[in-house]
TrEMBL record, chain A:
Its EC number is 2.1.3.2. Belongs to the aspartate/ornithine carbamoyltransferase superfamily. ATCase family. Catalyzes the condensation of carbamoyl phosphate and aspartate to form carbamoyl aspartate and inorganic phosphate, the committed step in the de novo pyrimidine nucleotide biosynthesis pathway. Pathway: Pyrimidine metabolism; UMP biosynthesis via de novo pathway; (S)-dihydroorotate from bicarbonate: step 2/3. GO terms for biological process: 'de novo' pyrimidine nucleobase biosynthetic process; 'de novo' UMP biosynthetic process; amino acid metabolic process. This is Aspartate carbamoyltransferase. Residues 3-145 form the Aspartate/ornithine carbamoyltransferase carbamoyl-P binding domain.
UniProtKB/TrEMBL annotation, chain B:
A motif (PRPP-binding) lies at residues 114-126. Also displays a weak uracil phosphoribosyltransferase activity which is not physiologically significant. This is Bifunctional protein PyrR. InterPro entries: PRTase-like, PRTase_dom, PyrR, PyrR_bifunctional. Keywords: Glycosyltransferase, Transcription, Transcription regulation, Transferase. Residues 27-179 form the Phosphoribosyltransferase domain.
Amino acid sequence: MIKHLLSAADLDAQHATLVLDTAAELAAVSGREVKKLPTLRGRTVVNLFYEDSTRTRISFEAAAKRLSADVINFSAKGSSVSKGESLKDTALTLQAMGADAVVVRHPASGAPHRLASWVDGSVVNAGDGTHEHPTQALLDAYTMRSRLGRVAGLHVAIVGDVLHSRVARSNVLLLTTLGAKVTVVGPPTLIPVDVGPALSPDLRVSYDLDAVLPDVDVVMMLRVQRERMNDSFFPSTREYARRYGLDATRMRRLPEHAIVMHPGPMVRGMEITPEVADSARSTIVEQVANGVSVRMAVLYLLLGGK
Amino acid sequence: MAYPQAASSSTTSGSPPTVKVILTETDLQRVVDRIAHQILEKTDGADGTVLLGIPTRGVPLARRLAARIAAFESVDVPVGVLDVTLYRDDLRLKATRAIGPTDLPPGGIDGRRVILVDDVLFSGRTVRAALDALSDLGRPSSVQLAVIVDRGHRELPIRADYVGKNIPTARTEIVKVTLAETDGIDEVKLLGEETGTK
């Protein structure tokens, strides 16, 4: 197993499958009366969050606690960071406290990579800027496998703000590693130029959602990341929703078995309508539950052995 | 960065290992038959009993015991699988281990008599992990232990209720149980080094 999980590209097909298989076994623990395992007793996991997050931080915290690790939550607000402490000094502090793993979210792309060179423990990237979010990709792949039985051979459309999406980047890398066919869909202003050659030679690009829908097994809607946009990428919210939002009419174009995913947080009425988000095809709530199992698997595989 | 794999070599002295067959296929069958009879005797007909196999080889052994018990007295004893990996105390000493499935029979283990089944009883640490795992899964009325081979060298106060064969061994020797289901052949072997090399 690898020492850090910084990018979805760190995992080859064999390791990624090991994570998913381990997560499947650990999911059984969530159904038990005693939802706790002694496996990581005495280990310390630090959640280092420089950016707001609800589900990812809580998910990592629940995962670490279910494995009996000690969890220290550190958010930039209310810490020395607001007094001007640098990432490196914070890292050295964590190092001195004996952190066995650091789960980091940071607004700057590449911050976890820097952190990994400063601390002895394992570093898990929980989202860095517009770069990567590998555990989200793993839980998405896990959700596809549990709903559709496999990942290899599936056709997955990733729709929306691909440019600012770390979820999209990690998913493209992981899903192609696992043998899925991926198409990114969105307005030309929100799809990076040369995204195909940069991420995976097999990646397809489309600007027409309606044309793609009848041919996919999974449609993954992305949130339009207003907070990262310092430019106008599309004329109006209404026009975006009209062309790239998933509503009930569009959903009917999907094949019978296809599922609708969203990494959350979603903006209802923008990229997805409430009718679709709450439909039987939607896996949004499942994704959150699966997130805990997948993060338990990652922590176990990084910290469980020698 | 990859973790170093645990060394798999057991013979370091350079001399060829000696191989002694302790139980043949027929012997193993007789041993399983006897333990099945002993379970019926000691549990008064195996009522309210659950057999839980500890992977890897405990699982087919538990199934065989259940099949023999059914053949002798037509009682259906539920069989389950108990993976103890996450409860081991030696996880940090080795490369990360893969987790296997835990599969309890319908009805669970609450209030039942659980018989743990494993191939070899050595340090007792696997059984300790199994007892911890059991207490997280429910509250059995009692727990017993059945093993094919007891080779001694216990490191914890644990003993088996049903033993196929006691084999005195040296710590450096290896007891290898192979089963048709997992290895293609039913046999118990003692692998050791030539005398005088230790």
